[in-house]
């Protein structure tokens, strides 16, 4: 969208096909907006925007071919420190010395991930927020301000539900109407993905076992273990 040639690399062609659909759909929403805006030349400008954005994007399973010539590599795989370190160690072998590495991790320490590479001076955090084409924050602050506050908040909402204090719908309504949040905690957790929320909380629990706020939550664990991960699987706290 911003004019950079970009390659999206995954290990699965099936995932890439799904990604292409999601990206095309998202670009379509932006094209629709531009098609009504004189600034973008109405429909013609909107079509040029969409087709040139798609032309700059390659979807591939061949990591090596693209990493060799990349200026920046942004990793966005599963929230598991060993998996991230293993991937970066591989990428480090093929990337050019000038190439900058970044992790989109939501919660893991950047210095520890970077320790798997020989470019600690060219390694950073680059954390996007959902939905990425719309949210304006890109956080690379040490400490991950948003998730450090957001995850305990989502966890406390689930504990409130678990205690039977209120339903998910009531809690969402209260936070939307009372604090002006665009989505209440259950809608947002379903949107982020319950597996992601659990991985983040579990990771912190492992590092700070005495902190009550990161303790496992039965309702959340049950939903994740039964494959109810939120919007992406058609069911989480709500059905879609
Ligand atoms: N692609 C492109 N455009 C999109 C889009 C997408 N995926 N999703 C929404 N939009 C656009 C719409 O076209 C619309 O544009 P317009 O206002 O110019 O017409 C605009 O965004 C608003 O969308 P909607 O009218 O459909 O709906 P809402 O007004 O409810 O907004 C929302 C949707 C932006 C998702 C809003 O509900 C919101 O801000 N929710 C909270 C999101 C949030 O808290 N994100 C952070 C999650 S934490 C995280 O990601 C970190 C991770 O590490 C866990």
Automatic annotation (TrEMBL):
SUPFAM superfamilies: 6-phosphogluconate dehydrogenase C-terminal domain-like, NAD(P)-binding Rossmann-fold domains. It is an enzyme of class 1 (oxidoreductase). It is found in: Mitochondrion matrix. The gene is LOC106815619. It comes from Priapulus caudatus (Priapulid worm). Pathway: Lipid metabolism; fatty acid beta-oxidation. This is 3-hydroxyacyl-CoA dehydrogenase. Keywords: Fatty acid metabolism, Lipid metabolism, Mitochondrion, NAD, Oxidoreductase. It catalyses: a (3S)-3-hydroxyacyl-CoA + NAD(+) = a 3-oxoacyl-CoA + NADH + H(+). Its main location: mitochondrion. Belongs to the 3-hydroxyacyl-CoA dehydrogenase family. Residues 2-139 form the 3-hydroxyacyl-CoA dehydrogenase NAD binding domain. Pfam families: 3HCDH, 3HCDH_N.
């Amino acid at each position: 969208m911003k004019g950079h040639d970009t390659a999206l690399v995954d290990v699965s062609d099936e995932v890439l096909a799904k990604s292409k659909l999601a990206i095309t759909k998202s670009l379509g929403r932006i094209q629709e907006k531009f098609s009504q805006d004189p600034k973008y030349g109405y429909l013609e400008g909107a079509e040029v925007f969409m087709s040139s954005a798609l032309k700059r994007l390659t979807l591939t399973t061949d990591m090596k071919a693209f990493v060799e010539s990349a200026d920046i590599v942004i990793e966005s795989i599963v929230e598991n420190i060993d998996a991230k370190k293993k991937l970066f160690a591989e990428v480090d072998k093929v990337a050019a010395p000038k190439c900058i590495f970044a992790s989109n991790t939501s919660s893991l320490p950047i210095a520890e991930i970077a320790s798997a590479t020989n470019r600690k001076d060219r390694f950073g955090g680059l954390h996007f927020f959902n939905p990425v084409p719309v949210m304006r924050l890109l956080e690379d602050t040490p400490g991950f301000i948003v998730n450090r506050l957001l995850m305990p908040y989502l966890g406390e909402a689930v504990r409130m539900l678990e205690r039977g204090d209120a339903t998910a719908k009531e809690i969402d309504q209260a936070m939307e109407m009372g604090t002006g949040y665009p989505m209440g905690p259950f809608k947002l957790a379903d949107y982020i993905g319950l597996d992601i929320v659990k991985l983040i909380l579990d990771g912190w629990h492992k590092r700070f076992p005495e902190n009550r706020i990161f303790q496992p939550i039965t309702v959340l664990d049950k939903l994740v273990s039964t494959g109810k991960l939120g919007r992406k699987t058609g069911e989480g706290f709500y059905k879609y």
